[in-house]
Amino acid sequence: MEMQSKFARDMMAQKLMSENKDNPFNSRFFQPSDAMAAPTRQGFSNLLSKMEQRDKQGTDVFPALAIGSGFAPSAGISDVLGFAPDPFNPGQTLPSFSENIDRGNYLDAGLQTLGAGGDVMLAASPFAPLLLAPAAAMKMTSQIGKALRGGSKVTETSKLFESVKKFPALSKSEETLVASSSAPVNEIAGLGRVKIEKIDPKDLEGSKKRFDELKALTSGYKQDRAKAKIIRLENGENAIQYMQPPTEVKKLNISELIATQDNVVLGTNKTAGDVMPLVVKKDGKFFIRDGHHRIAQNINSGDKTADVRVIDLDKGGFLGVKATKSLDDIKPGQTLYRYEKSEYSSPDTGAIFYSPDKSYAELYNSDSSLLKTSKVPDKFLDIRTNTGQEKAINWINKEIDKLEKAEIPRTSQDIKLAKQFLKQKDAQGISSSLANLNIIYSKQLNTKINPGLAEKKMMGSLDFDAMTIREAGRDGKEDFSIAFRKNPSTKSLDDIKNKYPNVDLSVFSKPEGITLSKIVVPKDARSEGIGSKVMKDLIKYADENNLPIALTPDSSFGGSKTRLKSFYRNFGFKDNKGRNKDFSFRESMIRQPKSK
Prior knowledge:
The chain is an alpha+beta fold. It is built from 19 helices and 19 strands. β16, α18 and β17 form a beta-alpha-beta unit.
């Protein structure tokens, strides 16, 4: 029993060291000198003296403490199992025996065997006292051997790395991007940069070949938005769009790289498979985020350059990573964006959210969504301003009083949070308080949470058509969305069909645009201009939603193809070929939306 409890205490000592406690040797769990024979204590004392000298030269004392813990009984077994603290990387553990064998670190594995063998002999020493001396010698040889190997590596690395600095502060969206970059490329491509390559109308064969190449390259990307597709630019030209993963492989001079951890050990073969080191470019400098040991191996081999993966935050352009915005960036008349599912039907119970950043709206793009655009209206509540905040806070306070008096079950905590957020007296606090009101409303109505309900109520009471709001997940202090009291784009193709019940109208919508199959006006009404009215409504809808209309004139329903082509050309349709070719459609005529 005594031996078992002592083993537990020793294992706890190892755990404390791996967690980088300030001085685990003073812990009630562990007094290493109590467990050492005289020769071992002398060797340990000499080792500490060397470490203290290094500490006076500016090196952390942690390596001495970590190596010293290895003299404890059962420490050798812990080392074999992979629980021993790394002396030169606080908070990390050394490779286990099997990991060292796999990596070819046979000397380290041999030193581990000596330490473990010493533990076994120490455990038997109460029954065979003669084993105590060789046991202590084996453990001392194991630890001092590893210390001398490690010490020389640290000294060499400190001479070769020209700069060691703290990793720069990143925004929330930047940190998310960097942290995600350790995942496979096919999973993170959708977080990279949107790339556009124009289609050359004079070399359609070459453009098709390039599209096929990019389509094959991006076919394995997880996010649909990252895959190669044909798009229409605002000037009406066609182009290939795809996404470039956030990391680019580059060969950089090692002298340019800035280390961001205090101790980098050379020659330990600490690798992560074939994954290259990750470097972040920020403010013109290259900071090592991951892969210090791999770059250290390059240094040890005498290399002047290293192949690394680089995330260039200075260059920007990453999806969802945006610069902060000033108050002037959102004003009446500004264009707003929203990707909306084609089958979406507004329930008209909550506010509708648009973004002034098209790149942010792109995060919600999918094969079944359509790009909607709108404008910031004149009757606009801006909660970033003092006046807007005062109006919003007064309304929310009155609403909280009403809900509190209503004594709605299970809402006391929600009301408390709404009050706390409002005390911030800023746009963030107002947005968070409104979010809590939405939770309270859902409990009052016994329904699911309806995002935007509180915003809609407030805009209705204060007589505003739209307002700024901080949606969950928005990043910068001035990074806002726009909440509309009513959906500014409530019309649908069905509305147009219902408007003309006597017209045989066959029209379909998809993310790429609108396809008009037929429009047949009754014979007794063909001189009343109904066909032109239907076309005007269709074109208005298409322009409002930034969608092209494609069709193929067909004389099967009356009239000649020549007259039909002339009719459609009057509405801006062109032959779908040559420089006007839109590869998203097979139809023979196309009309691109007018830019807003």
